[in-house]
Design a protein that fits this description.
Chain lengths: 150, 150
């Protein structure tokens, strides 16, 4: 499959998800938690495949109708370490994992670029730590976030 | 299905078609004939559903990589007549046909707007004529086109 086709199919799924699931919950006052969203498309399909970021951003704006998260947590880790963890039997190995290490390095760089460009929305969690430390960092970020908006 | 999702799925299919089929044929010096392309997405999903034309154009640019036809023939007909013909048993009735007449009127208006804005590429064929007249108009447009480029 072409990277462009892959990007558009991810965007199709996101478009439907936004209007069918996310917006109704938000309208209800619920908290919506996603483990990937538009930024992942930019990271994997844009930065990873070295495509036109500005144009993919337009496609994503169209797909999401401009809906942006209030808080984004980036679990940052060296690609070598992340890939090794995955192979050892955490989650299932998928097609995207099969790309070369160089690809994952570009993806990480893209994520860090986005996080640094909008430090108010993005919080970087050091995912190389032990699980309980990662969890404690997440809790701290969430407590800080909710203390600001409540 | 959401109009936005529909648009993105059509764009996914077009992206794959462009690189997998159309570009290799063009590189071979072949003539490629399509019975719908990016402009149909603009007409049906953009003008028909009254969406942001500029943004859909960006999504299409991304999908096609900017590939534009040299010649586009618009078979123009009153929606009332076109829909009646279709119901009588020409082609199969599909989901898009089921939209209301108002929708098809907006689609036609969109097509005519695009054709008038780029009269060099678009040629309008009066499809309300008898089939042999329509065919003869097509032949004339093609002869004219090829006489110009050869």
């Amino acid at each position: 499959m072409l990277p462009r086709t892959e990007t558009l199919l991810f965007c199709s799924a996101r478009a439907q998800l936004v209007d069918e699931v996310i917006r109704p919950h938000l309208a209800n006052g619920d908290i919506v938690l996603l483990d990937r969203y538009a930024d992942s498309t930019l990271a994997y399909q844009g930065y990873g495949h070295q495509r036109n970021i500005g144009l993919i951003q337009k496609v994503l704006d169209f797909a999401t109708g401009g809906l942006i998260p209030d808080l984004t947590l980036l679990f940052d880790i060296e690609p070598e370490v992340g890939l090794r963890r995955r192979q050892k039997g955490g989650g299932e190995w998928n097609r995207l994992d099969a790309y070369q290490l160089q690809y994952h390095k570009r993806v990480r760089k893209g994520y860090l670029k986005m996080a640094n460009e909008d430090a108010k929305r993005w919080k970087i969690v050091d995912a190389s730590q032990k699980p309980d430390m990662v969890q404690s960092d997440i809790q701290n970020e969430l407590l800080l976030f909710f203390s600001k908006i409540s």
